[in-house]
């Protein structure tokens, strides 16, 4: 049975333009390789090849085995939107000119069925290649070839669905992350840092580790806003957040707790370690003036520290309250200071 249309019209011919492309890694996809093995066994042919419009055929010299030649041969044939059966390639107008037909390894039989994507766009062909011409290719065999191509289309559809689901999950994750980030300074927002504090409190309690937190407040922030304007105040907050972030480790968390107030969660840190971190933060802020409106402004913070090794039964809310008390004690004593919350009976 001959082909339905001449090869030079793009139906099984050579070097015709490629249709819309589909991104499919052909060489190592396990599902497509399984379909190819089934086709090879089912039709008792030398090879079953799945060629897509965007795949690059292997060079004949890159694979001395016949498998590489067969795959390259199928890539050389333009994609067809009909079932193509060439009983003897030597008798075909264009295929007879192919070097793999008129020379080694002398391919003699070729058949293919179109493969469409979920949008019904032609994206590839499922092809059969053999070295013996065939007098017959029955209607039942055509149907089996169509069924096999249908399995390829099913894999493409599943892949598209999976890709869409992964993309949706990624977008949802990004949206969720954005909902947890302060849009101005890029730290965790209040809701997020409170959730982190709760999670870390539970984890540290189970592991028998201390949990410390720091409440830090930018000194005289209202005066900065009143004098230089809110845009300048926002710029200062961004700079302060960046410096504070540079003082903590990856497992520690920095969040905007209020307008100019920050909450820092330090899982596993004792009160002594937390005091060291807080003092490092204070020094980092005070170390260098910030240029605002042509003026170099000296910035400072005040901070309060509270730890579970000083308040072993305290809830997270109580720890924050203790740190707040220490923060205001630091402000009352002149600002630009760090104070540690201690139990009332401590020396």
From TrEMBL:
The GGDEF domain, residue ranges: 209-343
Residues spanning the membrane: none
Listed EC numbers: 2.7.7.65
Alphabetical list of InterPro entries matching this protein: Diguanylate_Cyclase, GAF, GGDEF_dom, Nucleotide_cyclase, Rev_trsase/Diguanyl_cyclase
SUPFAM superfamilies, per the entry: GAF domain-like, Nucleotide cyclase
GO molecular function list: diguanylate cyclase activity
CC per GO annotation: plasma membrane
Catalyzed reactions per annotation: 2 GTP = 3',3'-c-di-GMP + 2 diphosphate
Domain of life: Bacteria
Any one biological process term the GO annotation gives: negative regulation of bacterial-type flagellum-dependent cell motility
Protein's recorded name: diguanylate cyclase
